[in-house]
UniProtKB/TrEMBL annotation:
Domain of life: Bacteria
One Pfam family this sequence matches: PAP2
Lineage: Bacteria, Pseudomonadati, Bacteroidota, Flavobacteriia, Flavobacteriales
Signal peptide: 1-21
Domain Phosphatidic acid phosphatase type 2/haloperoxidase as annotated: residue spans: 142-248
Protein's recorded name: Phosphatase PAP2 family protein
Origin species: Winogradskyella immobilis
Length: 291
């Protein structure tokens, strides 16, 4: 099944869910009690995950003026960053020999789908069998966000068909739309989407800024390693990160508003969205997150 057919199927399912009263009634589930069985908890989590994916895909239908302004800012920032794609990629590739092998290996493995899903399955399994709601909630957030961002980035890779760095005679402005070859699947970075989705989902569970910073630092290993490996351009990484953060924030807000899981008492007061701004000038360039 092609990426286009997969995306079309998802949209049909989502809109059916949004418009069918019987389907909506099925997904109306009371929060399980402390004495609920593992099977009941798993079914409840599955329903919350499906509703979260549906919410994230239909969210653009409810965007307001400020959301479109944010989108415009991201697009403008990406275009500005793209002017440094070729030079930036060449700089990273030239310096790959100075990067420890363990860093590159860790980045490649952590951002791979196999390791990613094993880690998620382990996290959810522990939360389910110990009936730890915080772990279950975190896993549902990660899995539903990953499913959403994974479909979007898989479709975009094929639709955009951007050439990867290092190909003879090609640069960051070369595209082969609807090309199935891996050498034209640069935009956006799949490793970045997976690692930032997990890092942001986990970091949101902690209020301590140092803990958050540590988690984001680990999450940045995969994206940075892909730059040194010459697998992606700067904008591939930047858009992948923005996409992941936007989807995680949307789903986390949805779970919080619908009271699907218990959140810490301080969450409404202390939890803040990360504000992403494009920094350009002097000796710095890139996206700066403030939380």
């Amino acid at each position: 099944m092609t990426a286009r057919k997969i995306i079309l199927s998802v949209f049909i399912i989502v809109f059916t869910f949004q418009s069918n009263a019987q389907v909506k009634e099925f997904f109306k589930t009371d929060k399980p009690s402390d004495s609920a069985s593992i099977g009941q908890l798993a079914l409840y989590d599955l329903k919350q995950g499906i509703k979260s994916v549906g919410h994230s895909f239909t969210r653009p239908l409810h965007w307001k003026k400020k959301d479109f302004i944010t989108l415009g800012t991201v697009v403008a920032s990406s275009l500005a960053l793209s002017t440094l794609d070729d030079e930036g990629s060449a700089l990273f590739i030239r310096n790959e020999r100075h990067v420890p092998n363990i860093f590159q290996e860790a980045g490649t493995r952590f951002g791979s789908p196999q390791v990613y899903f094993i880690a998620n399955a382990t996290l959810y399994g522990v939360g389910l069998f110990t009936k730890n709601e915080k772990l279950r909630k975190t896993s549902v957030l990660i899995i539903s966000s990953s499913f959403t961002t994974g479909l979007i980035q898989s479709f975009t890779k094929t639709a955009v068909g951007r050439a990867r760095p290092g190909q003879e005679g090609l640069n960051s402005r070369d595209f082969r739309f609807w090309d199935n070859r891996a050498s034209f699947h640069s935009f956006p970075s799949g490793h970045t989407v997976l690692s930032i989705t997990m890092a942001h989902s986990i970091a949101k569970q902690f209020g301590n800024p140092w803990t958050k910073a540590s988690i984001y630092t680990l999450g940045a290993v995969a994206p940075i390693s892909r730059l040194f490996a010459g697998a992606h351009w700067l904008t591939d990484i930047g858009i992948g990160a923005v996409l992941s953060i936007a989807v995680v924030d949307a789903i986390d807000k949805f779970l919080f508003k619908t009271d699907a899981y218990d959140y810490p008492d301080h969450y409404p007061k202390k939890e803040k969205k990360i504000s992403w701004n494009f920094a350009f000038g002097g000796d710095k360039i890139g996206f700066v997150g403030r939380f």
